[in-house]
Amino acid sequence: GSVFSVTVPCGTLAEAAEAAVPRPVIRAGELTGAVVLCIDDNPDVRDGMEALLGGWNCDVRTAAAGSEWRRELGGDAPDIIVADYHLAGDEKGPDVITEVCGVYERVIPAIIVTADPSEELREEAGRRGHVVLAKPVKPASLRALMTRMLAQRATVRRAAS
């Protein structure tokens, strides 16, 4: 006959509950499970984005300014960032996005939301690899853009592996 053995570490129910659960794989055309960091200094906009994106089954984390995003994300890197261009004071969304990408040492797809129609802003966003979405944001446009950006990211990851 055959002999098999299995080694199982002992633990408590509380430890098992705290164990890291792997994040779901985001499939092309879906937003379910995507960790979305929304940065906007307006609490009404943050609440609206949380409701909208939560309705699409995204894992939404919001921050009013660059100093808050670390606490909101914990150790989770976002899959995509949606940031207002003009934040409180002199802070700008693209600068916060650059900081987040630097901390996680990778390019994170980013959407800059703004009412500023200037070509200079669009050129700056393009140089940084961000996409600009004009206010007022249309939910269908936002969803299509997010889906496309996440699908492109998934394609790049598959090609790299």
- How many helices? The count is 6
Low-confidence stretches: 17-26
Helix content class = 40-55%
Average pLDDT, all residues: 83
In what order do the strands lie side by side in the largest sheet? 2-1-3-4-5
What does this structure look like?
The chain is an alpha/beta fold and 161 residues long. It contains 6 helices and 5 strands; from the N terminus they run αβαβαβαβαβα. It has helices at 13-18, 43-55, 69-73, 93-104, 119-128, 139-160; strands at residues 35-39, 59-63, 80-84, 110-114, 131-134. A 5-stranded parallel β-sheet has the order 2-1-3-4-5, with helices on both faces. Strand 3 (80-84), helix 4 (93-104) and strand 4 (110-114) form a beta-alpha-beta unit. The relative contact order is 0.14. Mean pLDDT is 83; it is low at 17-26.
Short description:
42% of the residues lie in helices and 15% in strands.
Present the secondary structure layout.
Elements: H1 13-18, E1 35-39, H2 43-55, E2 59-63, H3 69-73, E3 80-84, H4 93-104, E4 110-114, H5 119-128, E5 131-134, H6 139-160
List keywords for this structure.
161 residues, alpha/beta, five-stranded parallel β-sheet
